[in-house]
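User: Could you go from structure to sequence for me? I need the amino acid at each position, not a summary. C-alpha coordinates:
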Protein backbone atom coordinates (compact mmCIF):
# COMPACT_ATOMS: atom_id res chain seq x y z
CA UNK A 1 0.00 0.00 0.00
CA UNK A 2 1.12 3.58 -0.67
CA UNK A 3 2.56 5.73 2.07
CA UNK A 4 -0.43 8.00 2.55
CA UNK A 5 1.33 10.56 4.75
CA UNK A 6 2.44 12.65 1.84
CA UNK A 7 -0.04 15.38 0.90
CA UNK A 8 -0.12 18.87 2.39
CA UNK A 9 -2.93 21.18 1.26
CA UNK A 10 -2.63 24.97 1.42
CA UNK A 11 -5.36 27.44 0.48
CA UNK A 12 -4.05 30.98 0.11
CA UNK A 13 -6.44 33.96 -0.03
CA UNK A 14 -9.18 32.04 -1.82
CA UNK A 15 -12.07 34.19 -2.99
CA UNK A 16 -15.02 33.43 -5.25
CA UNK A 17 -18.23 35.17 -6.31
CA UNK A 18 -21.50 34.30 -8.02
CA UNK A 19 -23.94 36.81 -9.52
CA UNK A 20 -22.04 39.65 -7.92
CA UNK A 21 -22.20 38.13 -4.44
CA UNK A 22 -19.00 37.21 -2.56
CA UNK A 23 -19.24 33.57 -1.51
CA UNK A 24 -15.69 33.33 -0.15
CA UNK A 25 -13.49 36.22 0.97
CA UNK A 26 -9.71 35.76 1.24
CA UNK A 27 -9.88 32.36 2.96
CA UNK A 28 -6.53 30.80 3.88
CA UNK A 29 -5.87 27.55 5.72
CA UNK A 30 -3.49 24.61 5.75
CA UNK A 31 -4.26 20.91 6.14
CA UNK A 32 -1.39 18.64 7.13
CA UNK A 33 -1.14 14.93 6.27
CA UNK A 34 -3.26 12.70 8.50
CA UNK A 35 -5.58 15.42 9.82
CA UNK A 36 -9.36 15.32 10.18
CA UNK A 37 -10.56 18.84 9.42
CA UNK A 38 -14.10 20.15 9.67
CA UNK A 39 -15.53 23.11 7.77
CA UNK A 40 -18.18 24.52 10.10
CA UNK A 41 -20.62 27.39 10.11
CA UNK A 42 -24.29 28.29 9.67
CA UNK A 43 -26.21 27.73 6.44
CA UNK A 44 -24.85 29.93 3.67
CA UNK A 45 -21.49 30.40 5.38
CA UNK A 46 -19.58 29.06 2.37
CA UNK A 47 -18.66 25.57 3.58
CA UNK A 48 -19.53 23.62 0.42
CA UNK A 49 -18.16 26.41 -1.78
CA UNK A 50 -14.82 26.24 0.02
CA UNK A 51 -14.78 22.44 -0.15
CA UNK A 52 -15.23 22.53 -3.94
CA UNK A 53 -12.60 25.25 -4.29
CA UNK A 54 -9.91 23.30 -2.45
CA UNK A 55 -10.64 19.87 -3.94
CA UNK A 56 -10.21 20.86 -7.57
CA UNK A 57 -13.92 20.88 -8.43
CA UNK A 58 -14.43 24.63 -8.86
CA UNK A 59 -11.53 27.02 -9.42
CA UNK A 60 -11.76 30.13 -7.23
CA UNK A 61 -11.80 33.58 -8.78
CA UNK A 62 -8.76 34.62 -6.75
CA UNK A 63 -6.13 32.93 -4.64
CA UNK A 64 -4.25 29.64 -4.87
CA UNK A 65 -4.88 26.06 -3.80
CA UNK A 66 -1.64 24.10 -3.45
CA UNK A 67 -0.92 20.41 -2.94
CA UNK A 68 2.68 19.98 -1.83
CA UNK A 69 3.35 23.53 -3.06
CA UNK A 70 1.97 22.82 -6.56
CA UNK A 71 -1.18 24.48 -7.90
CA UNK A 72 -3.96 21.89 -7.97
CA UNK A 73 -5.66 23.51 -10.95
CA UNK A 74 -2.51 23.77 -13.03
CA UNK A 75 -1.61 20.14 -12.26
CA UNK A 76 -5.00 18.48 -11.81
CA UNK A 77 -4.22 15.44 -13.96
CA UNK A 78 -1.28 14.76 -11.68
CA UNK A 79 -3.40 14.86 -8.54
CA UNK A 80 -6.80 13.56 -9.64
CA UNK A 81 -6.12 9.94 -8.66
CA UNK A 82 -5.09 11.08 -5.17
CA UNK A 83 -8.36 12.88 -4.44
CA UNK A 84 -11.64 11.38 -3.29
CA UNK A 85 -14.81 13.52 -3.25
CA UNK A 86 -18.20 12.49 -1.87
CA UNK A 87 -20.79 15.19 -2.68
CA UNK A 88 -23.82 15.93 -0.54
CA UNK A 89 -26.21 14.14 -2.89
CA UNK A 90 -25.82 10.40 -3.42
CA UNK A 91 -24.78 9.56 -6.98
CA UNK A 92 -24.97 5.76 -6.80
CA UNK A 93 -27.30 3.94 -9.22
CA UNK A 94 -30.33 2.94 -7.15
CA UNK A 95 -31.01 -0.26 -9.12
CA UNK A 96 -27.65 -1.82 -8.26
CA UNK A 97 -26.88 -3.86 -5.19
CA UNK A 98 -24.16 -2.67 -2.83
CA UNK A 99 -21.69 -5.22 -4.16
CA UNK A 100 -22.39 -4.47 -7.82
CA UNK A 101 -22.20 -0.71 -7.29
CA UNK A 102 -18.76 -1.09 -5.76
CA UNK A 103 -17.65 -3.71 -8.26
CA UNK A 104 -18.53 -1.63 -11.33
CA UNK A 105 -16.88 1.39 -9.74
CA UNK A 106 -13.77 -0.69 -9.10
CA UNK A 107 -13.67 -1.70 -12.77
CA UNK A 108 -13.66 1.98 -13.71
CA UNK A 109 -11.21 3.21 -11.11
CA UNK A 110 -8.63 0.49 -10.61
CA UNK A 111 -5.93 -0.18 -13.23
CA UNK A 112 -7.26 -2.08 -16.23
CA UNK A 113 -4.66 -4.78 -15.68
CA UNK A 114 -6.08 -5.55 -12.23
CA UNK A 115 -6.83 -9.23 -11.76
CA UNK A 116 -10.43 -10.24 -11.15
CA UNK A 117 -9.69 -11.80 -7.77
CA UNK A 118 -7.89 -8.64 -6.64
CA UNK A 119 -10.88 -6.50 -7.64
CA UNK A 120 -13.20 -8.80 -5.71
CA UNK A 121 -10.90 -8.64 -2.68
CA UNK A 122 -10.84 -4.85 -2.77
CA UNK A 123 -14.63 -4.63 -2.96
CA UNK A 124 -15.01 -7.09 -0.10
CA UNK A 125 -12.51 -5.16 2.02
CA UNK A 126 -14.36 -1.87 1.52
CA UNK A 127 -17.67 -3.53 2.41
CA UNK A 128 -16.10 -4.80 5.64
CA UNK A 129 -14.57 -1.43 6.50
CA UNK A 130 -17.95 0.29 6.14
CA UNK A 131 -19.87 -2.43 7.99
CA UNK A 132 -22.12 -3.19 5.00
CA UNK A 133 -21.68 -6.97 4.88
CA UNK A 134 -25.29 -7.62 5.88
CA UNK A 135 -26.49 -5.33 3.07
CA UNK A 136 -24.12 -6.39 0.28
CA UNK A 137 -26.91 -7.95 -1.80
CA UNK A 138 -29.43 -5.18 -1.09
CA UNK A 139 -30.32 -2.74 -3.85
CA UNK A 140 -29.30 0.86 -3.19
CA UNK A 141 -32.90 2.11 -3.31
CA UNK A 142 -33.76 -0.06 -0.30
CA UNK A 143 -30.92 1.19 1.91
CA UNK A 144 -31.29 3.76 4.65
CA UNK A 145 -29.82 7.23 4.17
CA UNK A 146 -26.80 6.39 6.28
CA UNK A 147 -26.14 3.17 4.37
CA UNK A 148 -26.31 4.97 1.01
CA UNK A 149 -23.81 7.53 2.27
CA UNK A 150 -21.48 4.69 3.25
CA UNK A 151 -21.75 3.19 -0.25
CA UNK A 152 -20.86 6.58 -1.77
CA UNK A 153 -17.91 6.77 0.59
CA UNK A 154 -16.91 3.21 -0.30
CA UNK A 155 -16.65 4.09 -3.98
CA UNK A 156 -14.02 6.69 -3.13
CA UNK A 157 -12.18 4.33 -0.78
CA UNK A 158 -11.64 1.74 -3.53
CA UNK A 159 -8.46 3.53 -4.61
CA UNK A 160 -7.33 4.53 -1.09
CA UNK A 161 -6.94 8.26 -1.87
CA UNK A 162 -4.69 10.20 0.54
CA UNK A 163 -7.04 13.21 0.29
CA UNK A 164 -10.74 12.69 0.97
CA UNK A 165 -13.37 15.45 0.80
CA UNK A 166 -16.85 14.80 2.22
CA UNK A 167 -19.75 17.25 1.88
CA UNK A 168 -22.20 16.91 4.80
CA UNK A 169 -21.49 13.16 5.19
CA UNK A 170 -23.53 12.88 8.41
CA UNK A 171 -26.50 15.02 7.35
CA UNK A 172 -29.81 13.41 8.26
CA UNK A 173 -28.27 10.62 10.33
CA UNK A 174 -29.42 9.77 13.83
CA UNK A 175 -27.02 10.78 16.65
CA UNK A 176 -25.68 7.26 17.13
CA UNK A 177 -24.84 6.74 13.47
CA UNK A 178 -23.44 10.27 13.20
CA UNK A 179 -21.00 9.49 15.98
CA UNK A 180 -20.08 6.18 14.38
CA UNK A 181 -19.35 7.86 11.05
CA UNK A 182 -17.24 10.57 12.68
CA UNK A 183 -15.18 7.93 14.47
CA UNK A 184 -14.72 6.14 11.14
CA UNK A 185 -13.41 9.37 9.57
CA UNK A 186 -11.06 9.78 12.51
CA UNK A 187 -9.75 6.25 11.94
CA UNK A 188 -9.12 7.04 8.27
CA UNK A 189 -7.11 10.12 9.20
CA UNK A 190 -5.06 8.16 11.71
CA UNK A 191 -4.11 5.83 8.86
CA UNK A 192 -2.50 8.81 7.11
CA UNK A 193 -5.30 10.25 4.98
CA UNK A 194 -6.27 13.90 5.16
CA UNK A 195 -10.04 14.02 5.64
CA UNK A 196 -11.89 17.30 5.09
CA UNK A 197 -15.61 17.41 5.83
CA UNK A 198 -18.36 20.01 5.89
CA UNK A 199 -20.83 19.66 8.73
CA UNK A 200 -23.34 21.60 10.80
CA UNK A 201 -23.50 18.93 13.52
CA UNK A 202 -21.50 19.96 16.59
CA UNK A 203 -21.85 16.98 18.94
CA UNK A 204 -18.67 15.18 17.87
CA UNK A 205 -16.54 18.20 16.97
CA UNK A 206 -13.96 17.10 19.55
CA UNK A 207 -12.92 14.30 17.16
CA UNK A 208 -11.61 16.89 14.70
CA UNK A 209 -7.95 17.80 14.64
CA UNK A 210 -8.73 21.23 13.22
CA UNK A 211 -11.94 23.23 12.88
CA UNK A 212 -12.44 25.92 10.23
CA UNK A 213 -15.37 28.15 11.15
CA UNK A 214 -16.87 30.24 8.36
CA UNK A 215 -19.41 33.04 8.48
CA UNK A 216 -20.82 34.80 5.41
CA UNK A 217 -17.87 33.70 3.29
CA UNK A 218 -15.15 34.69 5.71
CA UNK A 219 -12.89 32.51 7.86
CA UNK A 220 -13.50 33.52 11.48
CA UNK A 221 -11.43 30.76 13.08
CA UNK A 222 -9.06 27.94 12.19
CA UNK A 223 -7.45 25.76 14.84
CA UNK A 224 -8.09 22.92 17.30
CA UNK A 225 -11.75 22.68 18.43
CA UNK A 226 -10.92 23.24 22.10
CA UNK A 227 -9.08 26.42 21.18
CA UNK A 228 -12.16 27.69 19.35
CA UNK A 229 -14.18 27.48 22.56
CA UNK A 230 -11.60 29.58 24.37
CA UNK A 231 -11.32 32.05 21.49
CA UNK A 232 -15.07 32.70 21.40
CA UNK A 233 -15.36 32.38 25.21
CA UNK A 234 -18.18 29.82 25.11
CA UNK A 235 -18.84 26.41 26.65
CA UNK A 236 -19.94 24.60 23.46
CA UNK A 237 -20.01 25.05 19.71
CA UNK A 238 -23.71 25.85 19.44
CA UNK A 239 -23.03 29.04 21.36
CA UNK A 240 -20.45 30.08 18.74
CA UNK A 241 -23.14 30.06 16.06
CA UNK A 242 -25.26 32.34 18.22
CA UNK A 243 -22.41 34.83 18.56
CA UNK A 244 -21.73 35.10 14.82
CA UNK A 245 -24.94 37.01 14.10
CA UNK A 246 -23.92 39.75 16.54
CA UNK A 247 -21.19 40.99 14.19
CA UNK A 248 -21.17 42.75 10.84
CA UNK A 249 -20.05 40.73 7.77
CA UNK A 250 -16.26 40.56 7.64
CA UNK A 251 -15.75 41.91 11.16
CA UNK A 252 -14.88 38.57 12.76
CA UNK A 253 -12.73 37.40 9.86
CA UNK A 254 -10.66 40.61 10.05
CA UNK A 255 -10.31 40.16 13.81
CA UNK A 256 -9.09 36.58 13.40
CA UNK A 257 -6.65 37.51 10.63
CA UNK A 258 -4.91 39.95 13.02
CA UNK A 259 -4.75 37.47 15.91
CA UNK A 260 -1.80 35.40 17.13
CA UNK A 261 -3.89 32.28 16.44
CA UNK A 262 -3.97 33.15 12.74
CA UNK A 263 -0.19 33.33 12.68
CA UNK A 264 0.14 30.03 14.53
CA UNK A 265 -2.50 27.92 12.78
CA UNK A 266 -2.64 29.50 9.32
CA UNK A 267 0.44 31.54 8.33
CA UNK A 268 3.04 29.35 10.06
CA UNK A 269 1.49 26.13 8.76
CA UNK A 270 1.32 27.42 5.18
CA UNK A 271 4.98 28.41 5.45
CA UNK A 272 6.05 24.87 6.36
CA UNK A 273 8.34 23.64 3.60
CA UNK A 274 6.86 20.20 3.14
CA UNK A 275 7.66 18.99 -0.37
CA UNK A 276 7.57 15.24 -0.85
CA UNK A 277 7.17 12.86 -3.73
CA UNK A 278 3.65 12.34 -5.05
CA UNK A 279 2.72 8.66 -4.66
CA UNK A 280 1.61 6.64 -7.64
CA UNK A 281 -1.96 5.30 -7.57
CA UNK A 282 -2.25 2.13 -5.51
CA UNK A 283 -1.62 -1.05 -7.48
CA UNK A 284 -3.67 -4.15 -7.02
CA UNK A 285 -0.90 -6.58 -7.87
CA UNK A 286 2.80 -6.56 -8.65
CA UNK A 287 2.00 -7.01 -12.34
CA UNK A 288 -0.24 -3.96 -12.58
CA UNK A 289 0.85 -0.93 -14.54
CA UNK A 290 -0.01 2.63 -13.66
CA UNK A 291 -3.38 3.68 -15.00
CA UNK A 292 -3.55 6.54 -17.48
CA UNK A 293 -6.04 9.38 -17.29
CA UNK A 294 -9.28 8.30 -18.95
CA UNK A 295 -12.14 10.48 -20.10
CA UNK A 296 -15.74 9.28 -19.43
CA UNK A 297 -16.13 7.64 -22.85
CA UNK A 298 -12.89 5.70 -22.45
CA UNK A 299 -13.99 4.58 -18.99
CA UNK A 300 -17.31 3.33 -20.36
CA UNK A 301 -15.59 1.41 -23.14
CA UNK A 302 -13.18 -0.12 -20.65
CA UNK A 303 -16.06 -1.19 -18.42
CA UNK A 304 -17.76 -2.82 -21.38
CA UNK A 305 -14.60 -4.75 -22.19
CA UNK A 306 -14.36 -5.94 -18.60
CA UNK A 307 -17.97 -7.11 -18.66
CA UNK A 308 -17.74 -8.64 -22.11
CA UNK A 309 -20.38 -6.26 -23.48
CA UNK A 310 -20.64 -5.56 -27.24
CA UNK A 311 -21.92 -2.55 -29.11
CA UNK A 312 -22.99 0.71 -27.52
CA UNK A 313 -26.21 -0.34 -25.85
CA UNK A 314 -27.76 1.86 -23.17
CA UNK A 315 -25.23 1.08 -20.45
CA UNK A 316 -27.85 -0.30 -18.05
CA UNK A 317 -26.31 -2.58 -15.47
CA UNK A 318 -28.47 -4.56 -13.07
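Assistant: Here is the amino acid at each position, in order:
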Amino acid sequence: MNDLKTIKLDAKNVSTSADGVKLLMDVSLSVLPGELVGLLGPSGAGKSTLLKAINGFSKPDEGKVLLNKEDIYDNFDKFRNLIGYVPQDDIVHESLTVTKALYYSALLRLPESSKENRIQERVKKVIEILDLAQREKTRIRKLSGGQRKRVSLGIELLTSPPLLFLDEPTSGLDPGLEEKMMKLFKKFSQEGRSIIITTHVTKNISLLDMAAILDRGGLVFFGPPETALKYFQVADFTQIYGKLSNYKPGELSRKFRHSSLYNKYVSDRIALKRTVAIPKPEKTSSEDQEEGILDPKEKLERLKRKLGMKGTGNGTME
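One structural detail worth keeping in mind: The radius of gyration is 20 Å.
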